[in-house]
Amino acid sequence: MIFSIVVQGAPHTQQSAESALRFARAVLAEGHQIYRVFFSGDGIHDGSALATPQQDEGHVVAGWQALARDHQLDLVVCIAAALRRGVIDASESKRHDKAQHNLAEGFTLSGLGQLTDAALNSDRVITFGS
Amino acid sequence: MSELSFLIINRRAPYASNQAREGLDAALTAAIFEQDVSMLFLSDAVYQLLKAQQPDAIGQKNLSANLQVLPMYDIDKLYVCAEALATRGLSVGQLVVPVEVLDKAQINALIKQQDRVLTF
Asked: How many CA atoms lie less than 13 Å away from A16 in the CB half-sphere?
């Protein structure tokens, strides 16, 4: 079965962010596919390269990156939600005349159309809410 | 691409978080992709539908104005939970757009009919 996962919870704030990551691992372990993971609302913080949780805690951002590396996951961060909250990639940083950018490697910024596209191309869309 | 039925479920009050706006944006985007979109308002999300919202007083954009343009995007199926209205002392006459009021059994049936459900 082909899944897409929507993540609306901020990492290390809401359990839904951690639950989404665990669900993704379980889906892949059972031999299913993940078409896309779409991060929206406060879930966009899952794509921050600057997240630095304490060493004895799980690292949600690194968890997604490792999973993406192993399984070629498409990790898409909602661009409108991300820019508002200060998660930005190099090209948006340049476009908006900012000095820094902080979108973590393995994630891409894109629009809400990617959510509809994910729903159209997956058998199941599972939302981890806020 | 074949047309699927999308149900956007809203659960949150309009201005306490950005969930209401995200739900509305997701509905409009699915409509632009020419999908069959309906929206369901549960719990505090019924407050999204109230007339005479004045969110500019707290520095927010008026979401109810966006609700009124939904028919232009062919989103004309708006459903509201009867219990959510009743427990908040609200009636359909206080809402800014025409809605269909559903009980719990009808809501279950509605969700079951859908190809895709997105929750906000």
From this structure: 19
Question: Which residue in B6, B18, B25 is closest to A112 by CB distance?
Answer: B25
What's the pTM value of the predicted model, to 2 decimals? 0.92
CATH code for position A15: 3.40.1260.10
Question: What is the ipTM score, two decimals?
Answer: 0.87
Residue A45 a catalytic site member: no
Q: What is the pLDDT of residues A66-125, one digit of tens each?
A: 999 999 999 999 999 999 999 999 999 999 999 999 999 999 999 999 999 999 999 999
Cα separation, A30 vs A75, whole angstroms: 20
Give B118's contacts in chain A (Cβ within 8 Å).
6, 115, 119, 125, 127
**Residue among A20, A51, A73, A78 flagged as catalytic:** A78
Range of the structural domain that residue A96 is part of = 2-128
Closest partner CB to B19 (pick from A41, A111, A119): A41
Q: Which domains are delineated in chain B? A: 5-119 (3.40.1260.10)
For residue range A9-53, list pLDDT tens digits in order: 999 999 999 999 999 999 999 999 999 999 999 999 999 999 999
Query: Which SS3 state, helix, strand or coil, does residue B37 take?
Result: strand
Using CA atoms, how far apart are residues B7 and A119, in angstroms rounded to an integer?
A: 11
Looking at the structure of chain A, the number of domains it has is 1
